[in-house]
Design brief:
The chain is of the alpha/beta class. An eight-stranded mixed sheet has the order 9-16-15-17-19-13-20-21, sandwiched between helices. It folds into three domains: 73 residues, Thrombin, subunit H (Beta Barrel); 277 residues, Rossmann fold (3-Layer(aba) Sandwich), CATH 3.40.50.12240; 109 residues, Bovine Mitochondrial F1-ATPase, ATP Synthase Beta Chain, Chain D, domain3 (Orthogonal Bundle). The protein is built from 14 helices and 21 strands.
């Protein structure tokens, strides 16, 4: 028999405090009835002696210290799940908001997830094709990986997320079960509508489970949204054998909600006012990616975060980088030049890429073309810096070739608009770009590899260039 407690000790922001409660568990779900018989819900977030702190999902507006009736339900917050979640839209608390009725569930799961035994983890192998050349070729996304996107205010990370949702697939076996769980936290209403309309227009909504929390909704839902999304992903992966790609945007909004929530509890702040436990809190989300022995499904994560002041040393990207396995970095200068997606390939990397590419997974030439492309583009950046000092006219012929390569690399390889490219097409494009460079500058390739893959005639025909005027035309000379 559950007891109903009358009255509150204190109200602070989205948190209520009760005194005199007994036998209460951490994360226990709470039913709250206020004087006008309105029912709200919450969960226990802190217990100190007989004082219990409860976060209220719907907020505490209109609550008074008296005439509040609280009942502890004796279990943590759970979600009812089935395959019907695909094609549906939920709020941050995991409740349907698309007007299609409740989910008829087969399984009920704790939104906090269950710890994944490290011994039972399978090492991530095989890759997920995003259709983005810069990612698929140079920072390959591996199943079971967590690969964040570092963006900044004003960059096109929302558009990039949409393109990944529209075009991502299991590359080598397209018939395999594959779906996407998409969580948007703290977004504006027009951005939320943009996501929904884009997925519907692309006819991919039937393979997407969407969780939307707008900026006007309670911060408690913002904190719950990624947990509800990841719980859904775990069900689809480990109960229904799907390969699940989880895209979460914007983790900065989540962390700011965490900071506001921590302040409401009166906790001592850490760096830049964020709670000292933010590292472990983010870990509890990111570490829910992976694969398990004996299960054919997988959970792969792409968290997206906007770096405050474009500072990669800010606590949010800094801690995210410690936990995750690489990063995709967006560049404002590329965006200003009209390049989409504006991915800065040199600071971007995938630490698990080496184990998921090659003859058994992608193509045997994948690693060598990626290494040489990155080396050549790094040289282009050095030459660009030099040209700003001495002028392009004073560059050596070899350096001018790198200038030509870099400009074509940005306008043809990085820049692809809304086009989706197969990995094979991206690799072929990479070889054509490298074929424009003098062979003695391809220092990451052996003679045999140069003779096998470098084809200048094909490259010049592709870019509509000829050997006599290539450099002059690319550098804008007479």
């Amino acid at each position: 028999m559950s007891l109903e407690y009358v009255g509150l000790k204190a109200i602070k922001g989205p948190i209520i405090f009760l005194e005199g409660s007994k036998d209460i568990g951490y994360e226990e779900v709470v039913e709250i009835r206020i004087g006008n018989n309105e029912v709200r819900h919450g969960r226990v977030i802190e217990i100190s002696g007989d004082i219990v702190a409860v976060e209220v999902f719907e907020g505490t507006d209109g609550m008074m210290l008296k005439d509040v009736y609280t009942k502890f339900l004796g279990h943590p917050l759970r979600m009812g799940l089935s395959k019907e979640v695909l094609g549906r839209t939920f709020n941050g608390a995991g409740l349907p908001i698309d007007g299609l009725g409740p989910i008829f569930s087969n399984v009920s799961m704790d939104v906090n997830g269950e710890s994944m035994n490290p011994v039972s983890r399978r090492y991530p192998k095989n890759f997920i094709q995003t259709g983005i050349s810069s990612i698929d070729t140079l920072a390959t996304l591996i199943r079971g990986q967590k690969l964040p996107i570092f963006s900044a205010t004003g960059l096109t990370h929302n558009e990039l997320a949409v393109e990944i949702v529209k075009h991502a697939k299991i590359a080598e076996k397209e018939h395999e079960k594959f779906c996407i769980v998409f969580a948007a936290m703290g977004v504006k209403h027009d951005v939320a509508q943009y996501f929904k309309s884009q997925f519907e227009q692309a006819h991919v909504m039937d393979r997407v489970a969407m969780f939307l929390n707008t900026a006007s909704e309670p911060i408690v839902e913002r904190i719950l949204a990624p947990r509800a999304a990841l719980t859904t992903a775990e069900y689809l992966a480990f109960h229904e054998d799907y390969h699940v790609l989880v895209i979460m945007t914007d983790m900065t909004s989540y962390c700011e909600a965490l900071r506001e929530f921590s302040s409401s509890k009166g906790e001592i702040p850490g760096r830049k006012g964020y709670p000292g436990y933010m590292y472990s809190d983010l870990s509890s989300l990111y570490e829910r990616a992976g694969m398990i022995e004996g299960k054919s499904g997988s959970v792969t994560q792409i968290p997206i975060l906007t770096m405050p002041n474009n500072d990669i040393t800010h606590p949010i990207p800094d801690l995210t980088g410690y936990i995750t396995e690489g990063q995709i970095v967006l560049d404002g200068q590329l965006k200003q030049r009209g390049i989409f997606p504006p991915i800065s390939v040199l600071p971007s990397l995938s630490r698990l890429m080496k184990d998921g590419i090659g003859a058994d997974y992608t193509r045997k030439d994948h690693a060598i073309v990626a290494d040489q492309l990155l080396a050549a583009y790094a040289k282009y950046n050095e030459v660009t810096a030099l040209s700003q000092v001495i002028g392009e006219d004073e560059l050596s012929t070899s350096d001018q070739h790198f200038m030509m390569f870099g400009k074509l690399f940005e306008t043809h390889f990085i820049n692809q608009g809304e086009e989706s490219r197969r990995l094979g097409d991206s690799l072929d494009l990479g070889w054509d770009l490298l074929s424009l460079l003098p062979e003695d500058q391809l220092n990451r390739l052996s003679r045999d590899q140069i003779s096998q893959y470098i084809n200048k005639e094909k490259a010049y025909a592709r870019f509509e260039l000829n050997d006599n005027d290539t450099i002059e035309r690319m550098l804008g000379k007479n």
